[in-house]
Design a protein that fits this description.
The protein has one domain: Homocysteine-binding-like domain (TIM Barrel), CATH 3.20.20. The chain is of the alpha/beta class. Helix content is 35%, strand content 17%. The longest helix is centred in the C-terminal third of the chain and has 13 residues. α1 runs parallel beside α2 and α3 crosses α4.
Length: 118
């Protein structure tokens, strides 16, 4: 089970990721916990929060780091596949065992991750 987060400690609905992780720790149907479609810079702390309350494998599937402007309906900001992959090293260090990408990540992002952590 993975969650989108609005910052380093809260999922989008406002609950603490640590509380959610603790609640799901003893649910046998949940075999992994993680974060998806979230800004890459929030991933390390979110993973550390989860690791503090679960022994389940951790998942990191962040977005590219670009931001969506819902009013103008456009993406803005920059992303770099090699920078994204370097961040993946930190996610592994923080406990991630399943790593990928969500919104606006490309096959190049995933190829670069494989080079760095594969």
């Amino acid at each position: 089970m993975s969650f989108s987060a609005r910052n380093e400690r809260e999922i989008c609905s406002g609950e603490s990721i640590r509380q959610v992780g603790a609640f799901l720790q003893n649910v046998p149907q949940v075999v992994a916990l993680g974060v998806n479609c979230t800004a890459p810079q929030y991933i390390p702390t979110l993973l550390k929060e989860l690791a503090s309350v679960t022994d389940k494998p951790l998942v990191a599937y962040p977005n590219s780091g670009e931001e969506y402007d819902a009013v103008r309906k456009i993406w803005h900001g920059e992303t770099c596949a090699s920078d994204f992959a370097e961040q993946a090293r930190i996610w592994v260090w923080a406990g991630a065992r399943l790593i990928g990408g969500c919104c606006r990540t490309t096959p190049e992002h995933i190829a670069q991750i494989r080079k760095v952590v594969g």
